[in-house]
Write a structure and sequence with these properties.
Length: about 120
């Protein structure tokens, strides 16, 4: 699933999908190099792990500066296609990460507003 992240924020698109029967992958396509750099700093692996209900040790993170992409890969809790699999294609993960990114963007906007009021 691909989620349009809207305009003016860190990311322009978030894509989650299955990466075989044992892994899910989530790609964050940043709007530009500055947004990529800011998001790399603001988004902790632990925060993503918490949002995905896993541990940071199980989550793989790849910061790909040449593409302005942050990629996360996590092992599936249930093998794809198993009877207990509730999201065969990994689509719902994009929505969860979008909510996390939205919260980061709100925090960044509030920080900038506070700075402008103080100056």
């Amino acid at each position: 699933m691909s989620v349009d992240a809207g305009s003016g924020g860190f990311v322009q698109d978030i894509r989650s999908k299955n990466a075989g029967p044992f892994w899910i992958t989530i790609d964050l396509f940043c709007t530009d190099a500055a947004a990529f750099s800011a998001l790399c700093e603001a988004l902790s692996t632990q925060a993503v792990a918490d949002a995905l209900c896993t541990t940071a040790e199980r989550l793989q993170r790849f910061d790909i500066a040449a593409l302005n992409v942050i990629k996360f890969s996590a092992p599936r809790e249930v093998v794809q296609g198993a009877r207990a699999d509730r999201d065969m294609h990994g689509a719902s993960y994009a929505v969860v990460i979008k909510e996390l990114i939205d919260a980061l963007e709100r925090t960044e906007l509030e920080r900038k507003e506070t700075e402008s009021q103080l100056s």
